[in-house]
Amino acid sequence: MKSITPLRAALAGAALLIGAWPAAAETLVKIGFASPLSGPQAHYGKDNENAARLAVDELNARKLQVGGQPVRFQLLAEDDQADPRIGTQVAQRFVDSGVKAVLGHFNSGVSIPAARIYAAAGVPQLSVSTNPAYTRQGYRTAFRLVGSDSQVGAALGHFAVQTLKAASIVVIDDRTAYGQGIADEFAKAVQASGGKIARREYTNDKASDFSAILTAVKPLRPQVIFYGGADAQAAPMAKQMKRLGLDARLLGGDMLQTPTFLSLAGDSAGGHFAGIPGGQLNDRPAGKAFRQRYQARFKQDVVRLGPQFYDGMMMVAAAMQQAGSVEPARFMPALTKLSYAGVSTDFSFDAKGDLNKAAVTISEVKNGQWTTRAVMQ
To answer: What residue intervals traverse the membrane (predicted)?
Structure first.
């Protein structure tokens, strides 16, 4: 029998101890996510959540380390119901839960009041809300992942006058912070381009019958009707325009350029326009690859702003790695200075938290599909 010396026994024992030594424990990093996950805007919200979860899962698969410490991200998803009151309650729950960053909210009317809660807690908020007021409140925690209404509305206003040569333009909005905000910016740009707003009308974000409004504006013979609101209302408006014999182009913001508008409007969708902040996914190699991963995972196409939520999560992780910390006070300065090539666009922020450079893509419905008509800077 082979004898075991004291030294050999000691080395064997040490090897056993080393083999049994636990790996460094992961740091759990909570990230808040909020969008409307129920109601008529749930298709936007679910798209946003899918993309955010895809980013979290990809980061966790990489076994990411921050400051030499393994981290695992956990997405806390909440339905804010596109309601400012619910949204502020969600914001407070996120803060109480110890989230390190928030992806959301979707609606400007929710993001604007929620921003105060995140600012008081020092938690960065990365939102796709477009109303200019979101980043004009003076909160250094607010970051906008898309162009603002000032940029999108202005591009659409110039397009209506300079490209479509519309002499009679009607503006309708749903009185939400988003709808009214983008309609205001559109109207300003029309006037700045030498055009004229023939009439301004108002509805709400639950309406589906616009016959009275459209009948009232028909004598004005509008060439363009701008709608500030969502696809669920724009689609029946397009149908009713056709039924009433209104020979006008419907224009709107990013909430119109969706598969939902196409399916709900049917053969009434053709010839209408939408302006979205940023470029087209398929124009960017990383964007095209993202779309393929998204489709493979969720068995559906991207709806609208999910890619920006994906990019937002990736930027939070990149800023944490640069700062070597998951604490907002440490990584937020890195986020402020970050230059990041995302799947949706190239990101860098100005002092207010807005994008330094935001392209606007204007698309037209042709042959039942959204087709790029122009990209404006």
So the answer is: none
